[in-house]
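FAQ: What does a ligand-bound record look like?

Like this one, built around 4'-deoxy-4'-aminopyridoxal-5'-phosphate:
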Amino acid sequence: MRFSPLVDRIAGRGSAAWRIHFEAVQRRGRDGKDVILLTVGDPDQKPPAAMVEALVTSLHQGHTGYAGIVGPMKLREAVAARVASRTGTPCTAENVVIVPGAQAGLFCALQLLAGPGDEVILAEPMYATYEAAVGVSGATLVNVPLKPENRFHPDLGALAAAITPRTRVLWINSPHNPTGAVLDRQEIETIAGLCRQHDLWLLSDEVYEDLAYARPHISPRTLPGMAERTIVVSSLSKSHAVPGFRTGWIIGPAAMTPHLFNLILCMTYGGPPFIHDGALPALTRDLPEAATLREDYQRRAKLLGGTLADAKNCRVVMPEGGMFLLLDVRGTGLSATEFARGLLEAGNVALLPADGFGPSLAGHLRVSLTQPDERLAEAGARIVRYAASPQAVPAPAEAAPRD
Ligand code: PMP
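The answer part, i.e. the structure of the complex:
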């Protein structure tokens, strides 16, 4: 039987990189090895107690019916009030739609903004699901490279040069996964200016908004003339260590909301009301666990970055935000996959070859900071040992990067 051509458009390039991860999981489960997984970005910390309590109470109260299609009003109002007070830019419930995680938010937003014949500009490397989300919409993805020598910040001239009459959407992600780059005010202003000048939508993935360290996170929605053309997508997954809550939101002009209603109606028909109730404390209060999370990632980046500074022929790219750091292994002469495979075999540490996020990350590995400090310290020591082993030290003729 034949599937629709859509199946080809959703078969992204990220899958090869995840092979190492699945091998590592198997190694741990089947072979009982002490494997340290630094591949996925699944927070290791416990969820905030107030959220769990609110969720359980809601279940006991029998809140298991259908919720509103675009989310319950009290949750939309809570997101709106939080955004308005954090940014100083007006936001009402009419601007907010609740979705099952930022991923669903990006997917839905894109279906409304672009279609066949349209172009969506995205810097590369990019988060692994983006390509397929553009693929589903039928639009064409236009990539602009982020270079290691610019610390993976965009070349704004190249971004402007990529705009054509077919461009409909400029899509940004700051703090950025996988590079950890946090855009500064001037960069955000220039990007916003391009959107106004060329009448483009700006899609802003702000899922790591609470994990910006090097400089404050700035949402482009707050800039003059941008609220009407910016779609912000975010969630509680990273800020509150609850990816399993699948609770996120889309913020945009009020005209967006009825279209999202129609899309969600034919897709998920709204989310689980008891989880919405569990999410409320995170949106109406500053929960102490959220502040701790932020400190955890920053401290862990420093800790592991410090250890990896001793990894022979490797270079650490410290994050400006988020929960990952990058390890540049080009100096070893091994490809990212070769390094990852060798490290898994010899040291039982799993890192993600980052070229799955885009060719500009050839020779880089993404290292997740979602393990307790002592496990990270142990992983760091194993990586340093592997980098100094004969397997990873380049023979003189092979010193050039191969991927
Ligand atoms: N965007 C980026 C950049 C991400 O890293 C992730 C999750 N890793 C998502 C979106 C999806 O997040 P959520 O759990 O809210 O769907």
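Follow-up question: can I read anything off the structure? Yes, for example: The radius of gyration is 21 Å.
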